Amino acid sequence: MCVSMPAISLACPNNFYIKCGMLDLWSCDTVFSRRLIIGLILIGVAFVGISLAGLLASISVSEVNLSWGKITAQTSEVKGVVSIYNPGPLSITSSNIVVSYRMSMNGIVMAEGSRRGIQVGRGHSTMNFSVFFDNTKIPQWWVSHVRNDEKTTVEIDVNFILDLGFTQITLATESRRFTVETNMLAKMNTNEPVDVTIVKPFHIIIKSISTRWGDISDETTEIKSEIVTYNPHMIPITITQLGFEIQMNNVSIGEGETSSLIILKAKTETTINFTTEIFNKKLDDWFVTHLKNGERTVLKIRMFSILRVGDLKVKVYLGTYEDEIRTDLLSFSQS
What we know:
The chain has about 325 residues and is mostly beta strands. It has 3 helices and 18 strands. It has helices at about 30-55, 140-145, 285-290; strands at about 5, 15-20, 60-70, 75-85, 90-105, 110-120, 125-135, 150-165, 170-180, 195, 205-215, 220-230, 235-250, 250-255, 260-265, 270-280, 295-310, 310-325. Strands 10, 11, 12, 13, 14, 15, 16, 17 and 18 form a 9-stranded antiparallel beta sheet that branches. Strands 6-5-8-9 form a 4-stranded antiparallel beta sheet. A hairpin with a 4-residue loop joins strand 8 and strand 9.
C-alpha cells in the first residue's frame, strides 16, 4: 500500500512524495527526476557499449582488398573486401559497428565513406563495402603533384569502429602510406643531335631539347622549352611556328607554339624558347581512361613546326616522345 508522507526535499518542490516499495522518487515530476531517468538510461547504454566493446576488443582486421568498380566521368567506385578475425566465442551483429574508408592524395581527400551495421562471425569472416572516388578533384590533385616535384603521397585508412553515439571506439585499423612519382618531361630532354627532314633535300639538326615546369595555376600548367637547332644549308630557313602537342591515352590535354617567325640562319645555331600549356580541367577526362586502362597511361608529346622554304609552307612533325605511366593507387602492398 502506498502512503503519503511529509518530506523536506530541495529536489522536489512538492511537500510530499509517494512511497511505494522501491518507487519513492518517481512521483516527483521535477527536473531532478527527469535527469535521473536520462542518467540511468545513459548509464545503461554505456554499460551495453562497454560490454560490446569488451566482446569486440580482440577483433582484428587481417586483410583489406581494394579494386575499381564502375567508372563514370564524375566518380570511380572503390570496392573493398575486409577480412576480419574474431577469436571470441560469439557472433556479433550490431548497427553500432561501422567500417570506414578514407583515401587522400597529397592531403586532398579523394574518396571516403562508411558502412554501418555489420555481422562479425566467429573466427574468420569478410565484409564488403563501396565508396566513390571523386574524379572532379583530379585537376586539384594534379596541381599538388607537379608543385611537389611530381610526387604524390597516397594515404589509405580502413577503420573498424564501435559507434556509441556519444563516443566512438576504434577497434582495429588498417592503414597504408606510399609515394607515387612521375618524371613526365624526362624523355623530352636530350643532348643527342637529331636530323629532321623538312622537305627534301632540306633538313635541320635539333642539337638539344630542355624542358622544365613553368607557372602552375588552378587552370593551367606551363612547360617551358628551349630547343637548340642548326641549319646546315647555305640559305636561311623560316619557321612560321614551332610547338608541342600533348596527349595522354589519346586525350589532348595541352599544346603550345611560338607566336612569331623564326629565321634559322645559314650554317648557324639558333636557340628557340616557347611555352606549352596543359589545360588542367581536361585531366579528369584523362584519369577516367587511366583507370579503365588498368591504371596505365601512354604519354605522347609531339613536336611540330610550320616551315616556309621559298614559297612552300608545310607542317612537319619533328618527333614524338613517348613514355608510360603506371600506378597502383589501391595497393595495400606498397610501402
